[in-house]
Design goal:
The structure is a single chain. The protein has one domain: CBS-domain. It is 32% helix and 19% strand. It contains five helices and six strands; from the N terminus they run αβαββααβαββ. Strands 1-2-3 form a three-stranded mixed beta sheet. Strands 4-5-6 form a three-stranded mixed beta sheet. The mean pLDDT is 93.
Length: 113
Amino acid sequence: MTTAADIMHPGAQWIPATETLDRAAQLMARLNVGALPISDADERLCGILTDRDIVVNCVAKGHDPAKVTCGDMARGTPRWIDAGADVTDVLEEMESHQIKRLPVIRNKKLVGM
């Protein structure tokens, strides 16, 4: 059985909810990624921040990315998948929720995207 862990990009990195969007954009550029999982103070997943979120929901609306936090962008219940989930479950989760990126969690820790 092929699992989420088999197809994920390992080494995903959290961004704290308290971090500003300009710092998130710098981290995305450094890591060459278009999305970062957002963590709360207890390192629990509280959202996903995308480069599009920064542009459309912050910059295009005239907000200063140096003053808006990642937590301000975290809306709704974040989707994630267990590292041991079958790849068909991964695809079903992504298709049914129309998402392109899905955090992979093992033992309550982020292990990939």
